[in-house]
């Protein structure tokens, strides 16, 4: 097992500081859990490896799917938890864990509504539908970025009284009798190893997309793909789980994206595809149905000559794209090419004019094009958990005080790239963090009584 993810077996924890709940990772999952814990009057410490909380959340678009929220009601959007769950299951072709689909789709709305009480003002994107969603349910802050979301959550958590310890890289889980977690050991920037004891531990840390060896073994179709996620996705949760003989699940599930702008290295919104844009390869051919989803599009793009494609669209789609900060940044870096006619478009793509797919006549001229590749963003498999986010042993029994959610745990995308419904990552993070907090409150109360 890698030195960065150790299990230490001991009778007691050599720590001078004790906290009811310790949380590994201060992304959306950990921060939502911390806010909910403080709402319940429970003290907690978040241990974040970076100097400033970011993680996969900061690299995302920051859009959270939820059904039955106050934000939806304010915009006159009629939705239901049942419909949301059906969409999640439909996208995964029925392979997503049913108990988590039910738990997460039920928890998403109360989680978001509770965040509104902490000053996070969500609105719903209602000018287009993301793949697989029958209803407008993508919630966003005004800035429409993941960085703004994690910053707002961080601010809310600290104002609620949660302690966030940054530059604290957790490398040890201390485990006592009956696999009870005693606490954690974490490295400080100067190399000092410090310890923190806890009654309950929540792993809200990471997936394994940034671990080349695990990607090569578990996601072979993405072994050569660009990893566009956070470096903290090093697979620590899986390595700890293996050492504890915990159950793992859905390790073949992940979120890819077929619209990673190259060479600028930025994410281009899939809204352009949903509103009529097409993807063409360097031979001018359209090679898949873009509306099936951006996750599986990553694999389709990587299969094309050179592993690249061009997003081609018209003026109307360009106006929509410019509503998103990531696209504006990419455009400012020179990613956008504009062609006055099919001859110029063929020259941009490097193909014969006669080879251009007929679908381009849905729009333009003029034609706009952005060069993209397929990328791996984050994994959707991990520690197996029950509906209360308790980590399970191989026999299905839960560990006494070990919880996991977000990237550390299995999600609701099944075991393949095509099972990812837009927003499933933040659904697992936000709803999972909220559920884990409720469970932690109960477990911590038991420790006090004991």
Automatic annotation (TrEMBL):
Listed cofactors: FAD
Protein keywords: FAD, Flavoprotein, Oxidoreductase
SUPFAM superfamilies: FAD/NAD(P)-binding domain (SSF51905), Succinate dehydrogenase/fumarate reductase flavoprotein, catalytic domain (SSF56425)
Limits of the FAD-dependent oxidoreductase 2 FAD-binding domain: 21-415
Protein origin, superkingdom: Bacteria
Name of the protein this chain belongs to: FAD-dependent oxidoreductase
Origin organism lineage: Bacteria, Pseudomonadati, Pseudomonadota, Betaproteobacteria, Burkholderiales
